[in-house]
Amino acid sequence: MKKICIVTGTRAEYGLFYWLIKGIQEDPDLDLQLVVTGTHLSHEFGYTISEIRNDGFPISKSIEILLSSDTAVGVSKSMGLAQISFSEAFAQLQPDILVLLGDRTEIFAAASCALIAGIPIAHIGGGELTEGAYDEAIRHSITKMSHLHFAATEEYRKRIIQLGEHPDTVFNVGAIGLDNIRRLDLLDREELEKSIDRKLLKHNLLITFHPVTLDNQTSERQFQQLLEAVDEFDETLLIFTKPNSDKDGRIIISMIDKYVERHREKAVSFESLGQLRYLSALKLVDAVVGNSSSGIIEAPILKTPTINIGDRQKGRIMGETIITCASKKEEIQEAIRKALNFSHTSVHDNPYGDENTSEKVLNLLKKYACSDIRKSFFDL
Could you tell me the pTM of the whole model? Predict the structure, then answer.
């Protein structure tokens, strides 16, 4: 059987991968190899490897790489440990193809090891821009190490080709995260309230803010502006989801913990909501606030407006439900007021609105054969 190896390092990434992993597991012609790493193995970030096990997926390798530091030095050391561990894992597993998603540091390490080992790489999420984070450079680097490319829009597909990848290896399959929205039976209001042990209020905001690793402003200063902005809205429940182990991520986590401790009547936080609760909340809240890609890609299909703060997502294709503002208290407040008056019943186009992305990726993986990973640069 064809051995397909998937690496997952975060709760969000695993949620995007879920239906593809399930499809590979159920296909009689494929052998699933699942490598779990990163925050999945950290109790600080929810120890979400337990969710993977509960979903019934066999884990081929669990690789501990997370160091108790979110400094630049700490992140780089974590990448070095990942490089060592992935090289050993791939030597044992001998996958026929490695499937990677996105642009995180541990995924860059996995791609580097696969390239040196001569293992073909299929990359999901290439061609996208995020000018406020070093994720962008990592994403384009993984593209150049990969041999099969699954883009979320036609514009992103063209950008991958612009990077020198042959058009025959680049496919516009839509955004893989939308499969969960279409295939999960989302919770209703009462079910969500029970699952988070809080009653929703007159207004409700889902807040996800990640460090802006290339911004001149510090993450602490930007997030403080956000906290001051939302603090002045009455009768509003603030649902915080904590960031991953990015550089300076623990600063934001500490600020969330302190804010929730002082404002238990109006705020609640989670290391991980999981896909079902997160998407259910995304559907039921008045707006999602922060700088997460889920506000750009998933929220529009649920007709939920997004307050996109700062430059972290700058460069992504954005639909008309996205309200972008600077990381300043007054601008954030104005954006929230605009979102609270947003018509959820209006019809809005979603530029990522393709269907059955996981199934398309699975079928292309089955067809793909590569005995030689050498590539020629495709000139436009």
Answer: 0.87
